[in-house]
Structures are given as C-alpha cells and as structure tokens.
Amino acid sequence: MAGSPEVAIVGAGLAGCLLACYLAARGHQVTLYERRPDPRAEGAERGRSINLALSERGLNALRGIGLDDQVMAEALPMRGRMIHPVHGRLDLQLYSSDGLRSINSISRARLNAALLDAAAERAGIRFAHRLTGLDPATGTMVFEGGHTAKADVVLGADGAGSAVRAALAEGAGLRERTDFLQHGYKELTIPARDGAFALDPGALHIWPRGTSMMIALPNPDRSFTCTLFWPEEAFAALDTPQAVERHFAAVYPDAVPLIPDLVDDYENNPVGKLGTVHARPWQAGGRVGLIGDAAHAIVPFYGQGANCAFEDVVVLNQVLDESGDDWTAALPLFERRRFEDTSAIAAMALENFVEMRDKVASPVYRLARHAEHA
Ligand code: FAD
Question: Which residues form the FAD-binding domain (predicted)?
Fold first, then answer.
C-alpha cells in the first residue's frame, strides 16, 4: 500500500466513529458506511439500550480525541448500587470504600451523536449503506441495492450481528459461535416526578430477584431507564395488562408507583436478545479486520461492552504506532494483544449476572461488603 491507505469502516456506531477519528488523525483516508439513516436526524431506535455505564477505560479512549469533557458534561456519576428488596430497606453498596469512585450513566444516542459529529469532521460518512457482501481478498464491498466500493483496508465495526464477520466466515476461514442467553431484556421508563428524579440519581438501582432482575440508570432529563433481564418465557407469560400489573405489584412493589406507563411500555417495547460472540481469527490477510462487538460481543452485566470496544480502538492505534502503519502486521498483532483480555471480560460479564440478580441480595454478601468497607 503506497501512500496513505484508504480505509473503509463498516458501521458508524460507537466503535466505528471513534476508530474513524483515530485513523484520520494518523493521516488515513477514512470512509464510514452505516446501514441506518443519520440517527442525529431520525432519533434513537426503539429497543436499543437508552443509556450506558461509561467507565475509565472508555473515557480514556475518548480523551484521545478530546471528547471526554463534552461527554462527561452530561454524565450522571453513579457511586454505588442501590439494592431494592421486595420488602424492607434499600441498601446502598458503594463501588469504592471512600465513595469517591463512580461509573457514569450517559445517553447512548447523545454519545453516538457526539462521535458522529467528531467523525464527520475528519472522515466521509455514507448513511443508508448496508453491507451485504465483501470479498476479503480484494476489499470489494457490496451494499444493499447493488452499489459497490473498494478500499485498501476494510474494518468491521458493525456490531454483534456483523456482516463483515459473516463474510470472513464464508470466504476466509473464520470460525464463529454465538452463545445466546436464555434471558432477554426489555426497557421501561421511570419519568421525572414534578421535575425531579424519582429515585437517587447517584446510584445504579438493582431489584435482584434470584433468577431475574430489573435495573435502572438515571438519564439527564431526570427520568430513569429500567431494564428487565428475565428468562425469555417469563416475558411471554405476562399476556394481559392485569397479569403485568399483578406481577409487578408482587415482585417490584416500590417501582410500580414510579412507572405510570408500565403496561404500555411492557406491551410495546421489544424483548432484545443477549449473547456472547466467540470468533477467530479477527482478520484476514492484514486487509480485513473486526473490532468491538463485531469481534467479541459480550452480555451487558459488567457494563463493559462499549468500554471494551473503545479500548480496542486505543490498542489498534498503539499497534499501528508499533508497526509503522503496516496493516498486515498490525491486524494480527491487535488480535493477539486483545484476545485474552476480551475473553476474560466476556466470562466476567456472565459471572456478574449471577452476582447482580442474586448474590447482592444475600445477607452474607452484604455483611462481607460492609466489613470490607468498615
Ligand atoms: P454497535 O454499537 O452495535 O454499532 C454497530 C453499528 O454498525 C451500528 O450503527 C449498526 O447500525 C451498524 N451496522 C450493523 N450492520 C451493518 C451493515 N451490514 N452495514 C453497515 N452498517 C451496519 N456497554 C457498556 O460499556 N456499558 C453499558 O452499560 C452497556 N449496557 C448495555 C445494555 C444493553 C441492554 C445492551 C444490549 C448492551 C449494553 N452495552 C453496554 C454494550 C454496548 O452497547 C456495545 O458493546 C457497544 O454498542 C458496541 O459498540 P460497536 O460500535 O462495536 O457496535
């Protein structure tokens, strides 16, 4: 590849936009291809998580393009988790013994919009371009409608159901498996009450119920987004408004008065699937590579999927430094550098589901935490 290579990034989500900014800063000519119309004009897709917990790993990556302050200006720091038992007192479990360390609740739509603005200043973006085919040997991409484009390097930042990954599986020997959980998720809204937060906005709220749970994260407009993580069949079992109301009154009694549109939200919001993507190799011929969820989607219980995708960008940037922008060396090195860490967080995220939905509510666990922090 003589001169600065042309890089195509498929997917203008969180990882794709950040990656475009980092690569443009290296002098690469970058074009993003995104299947959706511009979400800044269209609004958020219903059913995708409305907010995210952003931690230091993700912030560090945003710092690299000077976007951290802008994103943090709207963030709501959560210093611990607030446990809501069926009956009895709330229990705040701090994330650090001094109560000073926190994770940050941020709006996914606003984060994506900030990243799209940053990417648009530095790279080309083609919206409404859904990749449907890719020849890994030549870098030729085919989009819905038959339009084609070619690039020296093609990077798949196209999420858990990656079309780039599918092309590598079809034509470049990639092996993949997605382990779906038996649990799905559905979102509900706790609106602001008389203009104020209806719950403590300085905590991540959890209603642990053994085999299932509900959580709630605060939003800048003083609402909370609740997410139910339930076995899939449990969603279908509540098939009348009365059944929904009865179940919530019995299992989440303190939340019921806070969710005025409970039945409407429940009946109209979709049930999302959750899974872990296992795939290898993440690249072919040093020309086509995967990043973020496309390479290693994980379940959301550690709040680390986006953080991890952002950290991928930092590491890819480092290996490009080390290899002098030689993509044929950088892509295999990136995979070697990241595989173990991303496998570890995938396993930890699964383990944390059991901790959040069950262990945090046990008296033994609570005593141990209080002793730790005494
Ligand atoms: P995505 O954000 O999925 O972006 C992929 C982009 O590619 C999208 O814009 C999509 O439209 C586009 N695309 C897809 N296919 C094509 C195609 N064929 N052609 C062109 N474009 C395409 N992570 C955290 O760090 N903290 C959290 O608190 C957190 N909470 C979560 C809660 C839930 C319920 C879920 C489901 C996930 C959560 N995550 C969280 C994980 C996080 O959402 C993902 O890890 C993150 O979005 C991955 O970023 P990405 O850019 O790799 O993929």
Answer: 6-320
